[in-house]
Batch of 4 targets.
Target 1
Amino acid sequence: MGNIADFIKSIPEAFNSPAITITLTVLTLFLLFYYTLSILKRNNARNLILIFTLFILVTGIIFILLGKDKGYGWIYFFIPLFFIIAVIIMFATEIKRDIWDTSAKKPNEIKHIEKGTGNNNANVCIDEIIKALQNMSKNDVGAIIILASSMLPKAILDSGVAIDADISSALIESIFFPKTPLHDGAMIINGTRIQSAGCFLPLSQELNIPKDLGTRHRAGIGITETINVTSLIVSEETGIISIAQGGKIKRYADSEMLRQTLKEFYWQDLIGQNK
């Protein structure tokens, strides 16, 4: 341990110039920040937390050893700490999204949902969903449908009622018909099946959402902020259809916009059908 401490103490002696020391410090922080961005692009907050923990321990120990003889080594310990706090504040949504994903059900905990089986193939699903959305829009029936390509967190699924049924416009419209038990919650579509309905979603806390958008729209936006899903929302007041993805919402969605969004969701199934 003594040899390691002596080696660390010898490092600043090799760089007597303050400019070199500052340059290396800035470069190190820049590289760490760049790597942090690349991790967050892959929504991998668990690796980010691990890296931060190791970073603050290693740099904290090194800085304390370098500055302990001068009496201000503890100051350097707060440099990585402040950096970590800043990144957590800046990327709170990405970190929250990955934390949500860690609580998702594992595949072996729920029934596997087959895709592209029977007569309920991707094209049929697309047509049925669009038909249901347009019918509900004409009749000013509020609805929120979540397109999930993977399993959602257990807390969300357990808040609703398991359906596990083929996708059909009649079933979708009946579930969202006013005064029915499940009409106020969200419908979860996973693959070519309606997985559950009546689910409660986290509301968006963004302040720049238009005031005329109510709880249903905030829920549709909020789920896309934390999980990689798409929300299809029908306004009960205006009949306007909206699409929410990545925390952003597009209003006045027509049939072409809906079809393009659904094709992106079912792209794997569509490729399989065309082979």
Target 2
Amino acid sequence: MDAIRAAAGAGFRAVGLRFDIEPPGPVELRELPRLLDAEGCSVLDVEVVRLSPAWSEDLERRLIDQAAAVGARHLLVVSDDPDRSRTIDGLRRVSRRCREAGLSAVLEFMRFTHPATLAEAALVAAEVGPDLGGLLVDALHLARSGSPPTELAGHAPQLFPYAQLCDAPPTAPANDLASLIDEARHRRLLPGQGGLPLVELLAALPAEAPLSIEVQSDALEQTLDAGERALRCRAAAMALLG
């Protein structure tokens, strides 16, 4: 609830919600659409289906139902399963269920997931088929996986329904997966405060693709409340957009 108010107060027209770790109860799930309407916000995406051999399809169904209940456009999917065929089968299942519920499943790639790169993710998407809503390009993960923004031009624009912006130093703190995970979850920078090729990424993305600001930062969380963090994220993004 507080995240929605903070985002709306900063001028954002949509929010992303995390339902896998702290799922909303029945009362909150009924109240969320009313709050979103009152604040003039919609839900861009809900996180996260995390495919693995231990993944629960009961949790998957719950996440899809909850995402549909709040009118989310997308349900974010990542795969921790190194078995490519299982990942594809899982994506087909999630994508089909999402389509039936009125939203789309979107696959995010990262150096520490499967697939790990844009090229690998695009091949997986082609095998999954049209039920998959596309790929989520995160500025940090694109850079750390070794792909320049120009690589997006080799794919159909509709493969990228939205994107996530943040910033970071131009080179990774270290090349091991533990360091990459730590950076992604704790040490992101506001857009324009690092050295990622964000201008080039914006130029490569479809003009109509919504931009989500994802700045997971322990430093910002420890010093600023949610409202101020949202204000700074929007100000940084608007400065980048010119």
Target 3
Amino acid sequence: MFLFKNRTLLIATKHKKEQVLAPLLERALAVHCIPLTQFDTDSLGTFSGEVERENNPLTTLRNKCAFAAKAHGVDLVVGTEGSFGPHPVYGWLPAHDELVMLLDLKNNIEIFAREMSTQTNYGGTTVSTYDELFAFAKGKGFPEHALIIKDKAQEFSQCIKGIQQENELLAAFEKTKKYHQNVWVETDMRAHLNPTRMKVIEQAAGKLINHIQSECPQCKRPGFVVKKVIAGLPCSVCGTPTESIKSELKVCDGCRYEEELIYPKNKTTEDPMYCLVCNP
């Protein structure tokens, strides 16, 4: 991309995400990536709960990129922001929602991508015995994936993070159990201690690169991507518009050129099982 070639790009993370992000971005955009050293991203929120995230994930990510760029005196930055919890559709499954953003202050460009994945070891539970502790640890990919020990899930007074060795896990459990009947154990979701999360970050970065490389046909601005989906795919039996996607609308953030893609899923009609007339 001519807008980014040979520029310095800051990776806004303190948790070693540059290990997967930098090679992809340097190869795709011809930039020179540098790591974050002048801003503490944990000040905007921590997974373990010491610092609550005050804003929604997208606003937090936008602030992370802007604050990091200002601290380093650069005008091009990439950052990510992860969220974990029940899947928005399949609520019985834990989900990982990773946002990744490129912020170009020089050209006033903001491009982001999102990866929603059920490939996560996210979770936590109360334990009171060694057997319960190690059953949880085994199920969460320990020791390749780190764990956290607390005295309780919320409003805790003790929090031991980044546990990656069996002896460390035992020591943290015994230290906490000495003063509390039960112990809370949870997965450490920081990227450098969670290989599964790092893979999802890599997938999100791939989407971001695709978005960046999608240029507006009119002004060549990067980030010409789908901004709106339009429902109304007709039922194959009665022709009534359904809630399924009929078209997608790409919009340029620069010149506002629009392009509508009809039948993006290569379907011209929808199964009547999704029709409110045929299947009320």
Target 4
Amino acid sequence: MTSWNDLLDWEYQKSNLRFDIKKLTLFADTDEKSESLQHMGSGENWLACHLFIHFALHKHFFDKKKPVANFIIFDQPTQIHYPKNYQEGNGNFIQSEDEKADEKMFEFILSITKSLFPDLQVIVTDHANFSNKNFQECIVEEWRNGKKLVPVEWLV
């Protein structure tokens, strides 16, 4: 997990990360102290930790040839920021720092998923839509304009 640390924007990028199996929690070891997940604060820190531990555990189980589900579903990981574009006086849109962090998060998810291919599939449901090529190539469905995950006609 520590090797992935700088791939996300979060408070503990310079820390060593470890998972305590007895306490079932992730710790960030800084020069000053050891900080557990529940004391890290901020949605950004919690999201980073959850991504790290999910991927690390799946990698561990794949490496040890242990039975584990070969997919992960992340539902709206951008909701900690819910990115908003804002407009300059000249009409150009500027990407916010939150959007940059979210785009970096999706690059991280894609990178780790590719490194664990073909053992792992990651499904992300989110409102975010970034224009970069890697992101666009991953989109399978867009549920907008009346198109829904569960079609309305199924509900009748």
